[in-house]
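Quick sanity check, Cys-tRNA(Pro) deacylase, prolyl-tRNA editing enzyme YbaK/EbsC:
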Amino acid sequence: MTWTIAGSLTVLPALDHPELLADPVAKALAGLDSDRVGVAEIDPDLADTAAFCAHYGSPLTASANCVVVLGKRGGTERFAACLVLATTRADVNGVVRRRLDVRKASFAPMDRAVEQTGMAYGGITPIGLPADWPLLVDAAVARAPELVIGSGIRGSKLLVPGGLLAGLPSAEVVDDLARAVSE
């Protein structure tokens, strides 16, 4: 597949390079249409979206971030993941809180997110998340022809079509999940 958003990245077939993937990601990719998923090695110090885009020439508008949310209601905890464009922020206290049916929702603490996903902080991706977690995908992500997302580690990125992400087993496409980042 030809990736128009790759910038200076060298994109390889993801399943051919498990060393560039977190274990849960590699396992999940085996069950997907992986011909439509590429992986590119990057400098781990440049894994944060803004630094990555600036260095590798990939457009910020074609990057999506996966955030882990923890909600609580009556002593019960509920994890979920939200996938939003990098130019937006997930509406955690509104849309996400209501979807999880919790009284309070916030970003999960880093150590809990890493422990629960088996992925590196800053590289958490929707592919390979725990099967019982809801994956809330912003409608703009689902419509995107190509996106750069995490690979489960900080040393690489995945390139995928938005439709593949919207079709993940626990995914639910949500209108207005994200809000534009105010300048």
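Posting the structure with no commentary besides this: The chain has one domain: 12-180.
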